[in-house]
Amino acid sequence: MRANFPVRLGPAEEALIAQLKAAGADATAERVTVVGLPTRRVESYHYTDLKTLLRAIPPAATPANEASAPALRIPGAYNLMIANGVVQNAATAPAGVIVGKAEGGVLTTRDDILVHINGALAKEALTLTLENSVDPVIQIERRIEGEAAHVADALKIFVADGASTTIVETFSGSDAAHVGNHATYLSLGKNAVVTHITLDLSARAVSHFATNEYQLADGAKLRTLVVHAGAGLARTHVFPRMAGAESHADLTGLNLVSDGQHADITMETQHAVPHTSSQPLFKSIVRGRAKAVVQGKLVVARDAQKTDAKFMHQGLMLSDEAEILSKPELEIYADDVVCGHGSTCGMIDEDSLFYLMSRGIPKAEAETMLVRGFIAELFDPIEDEELNEALQTIVDSWLMAGK
Questions:
Q1: Coil, strand or helix at 314
Q2: By C-alpha distance, which of 215, 229, 16, 228 is closest to 114?
Q3: Statement: residue 227 has pLDDT above 50
Q4: Which of 4, 91, 102, 324 sits most deeply, having the most CB atoms within 10 A of its CB?
Q5: β-strand partners of 317
C-alpha cells in the first residue's frame, strides 16, 4: 500500500532523515522516510499534527560556547546543566547523590517517532543516583544555546528505596528557532517519594518536545507537574507505570498559552498490578488565538484489580479565539476497579468577577485573582516555599504579559 501511496516528505523530514543517516541511525531514518512525521491520522497526534506544525529542522547542535542566564533561579537548589545535549561539569553533589554519564537514550522501547528519534540522536545521558533522601531541590537546566539547532538529550534518575527528593527540570536557551527533543527516565524504588517538575520556559520561536517516563515500585509515591509557558510549539508525553502494589501518582500539568502558541500534554498511565492509584489533574489557560491540548489515557491491566484512578482536565478560555481540546480515555481489562474521567471548559465566571469588582477591585486585578484561584490546586501541594514562589512568578509573568 505504501509503495502505491508514497509519503510526500517535506523539508523538515528531509533534514531529519539526513541527520539520522549522518548519526548512523539508518533504521530510524528509514522509518521517517516510509511514514513521515505523524499527521492527524495518527491517534496520539490527532490534535498536534507534526507534519503540518513542524516546518523545519535546524542543523544538529554543536557544543555551546557560553550559556545564557538561567530562566529560573531556585534559591538553595543544587544545579546541574545539559547544554546543547552535552552534560556540563557539576558542582560537588549533596551527600548521597551520585552524578554520572551514560551513552545513548534512556527510554524504554515505545512506538513513538519522537522517542525513536531521541534514542537515535542523544549521544550521552546525564545520570543521577539518589542513595538516600536529599533536602535541597535538584534543579537540572536543559538549554539550547546559540544559532537555531536541533538537540536530543537525555536524563536518567534512580531513587533508592525509601528516599525522597524534589527534582525540577527547566528548559530554556537563546531566542533562536531551536527544536528540542528531550527524554527523562525516572525510577522510584520501594516507598520512595518524589516530586518531579518540568518547566518549559523556552523562547517563543522554539519547538519543544519532551518525554517523561516513570517506573514506580511497591509503595512509591510520585507527584509530577508539567508547565508549558514558553515555546511556540510544545508537547510533553507523560508515561507513568504503576509497577508496584500500593504505588500512587498525582500527575498534574498546566498549559499557559497565548497568541500563536500550541501546547499539548499527552499522558498514558499504566496500572500493571493490583492495589495502585493515580490522580491525573491537568489545566489549560488560553488567551488570544492559541491552542491547548490535553490527552489522558488510563490503562488498567487484567490483573490490576482494586485500581483507583481518576483523570480530570479543566480549561479556562480568556478570549473568544482561544481553543482547548481534551481527550480522556479509559482502557480497562480488570473488573474490580474504580476509574473515571472528566473534562470541563469555560470562560471566567462573570458572577465571581462581578462580586470582586463590586468590592472595589479593578477588573484586571479581579481576573488575575480568579486565574490564580483556578490553578491553586496544582501549586499548593508543592511544599518547598521558594520553589512554590518561583512557580507563582512564572504565572505572574504570563499574566502581566497579557495586560
A1: strand
A2: 16
A3: yes
A4: 324
A5: 286
